[in-house]
User: Fold lipoate--protein ligase from Oribacterium sinus.
Amino acid sequence: MVYIDLESTDVYENFGLEYYLAEEKKLEDTVFLFWRTTPTLMLGKYQNLAEEVNLPYAREQKMNLVRRMSGGGTIYTDLGGWQFTFIDRYKEEGIEFKKYLSPVLDALAKLSVKAEFNGRNDLCIEGRKFSGNAQYHLGESIVHHGSLLFSTDIEKMVNSTRVDEYKIISKSIQSVRERVCNISDHLKEKISPEDFKELMVSAILGEENKANRLELSKEEILRVKELAKTHFQNWDSLYGKNPKFNMEKIGRFPGGKMHFSLEIQKGKIQEASISGDFFSTLDPEEISKAFVGLAFDRDSLLKGLTERGLEGKLYRISVSEIADMLA
Assistant:
């Protein structure tokens, strides 16, 4: 096993590193990464951003948004949490979690934390989740990555994500706080996130691998940054990969109520129908047409609706208010 530490808290660079090690710098040994990010919401490959994330809150808190190359759900992470990654040469069919979770569970056991695998993709302590995991194949590699809530801000995690109502009902729980926990709450002695990292890395590497720490060259780090921008830090990777969906939303403004019915595909509005008890100098068809073809994110809506002359045409309703409410 080889350990690589990019020493970056930039989520896009860390995902770029995963891509680089899986697709370009193909080491024969298993590669192990242990990293963290500034406040970030990581969206699963197949998820709809508009349904999973509280976008106004995420913007207010200046959270990063990124779409993973793996499936699974949306997770919130910050400097109080850690991510771990294992990259292997692809040798078998299907998705297998236990192989990569066993070293993590063993490392936690050395810290006297009694954790267990729930059989799907989570690690739990006394039935409460502290780790979600996902896998994907890239070329000849398999990438397994997971999160570890150590001293994560649970309040921000709850406020920034929208929980599937079915999941709440099916598990008979009252709130997200009742089904997640931080590892730090279960340690016998208080330690910092940085100390936790060193203990986990040492335990997972073991005596036989503790010297196997590889540093990237300056040229390799530049390549990682390029891959970060190409595959993760751009509009298309986040919004363009949203699945096709229909949105029904009601906005209540000082000038009246507006009902938005939108069909969105590949991140752009394909069809729009706007109704309500508001006042305007435009026909309903003109208002609806102003939305068609616009990219479905706040900045694009604000720019596009302004350029198409909607500002000032709706009584006591601004384009900025509409963009904030929708996206």
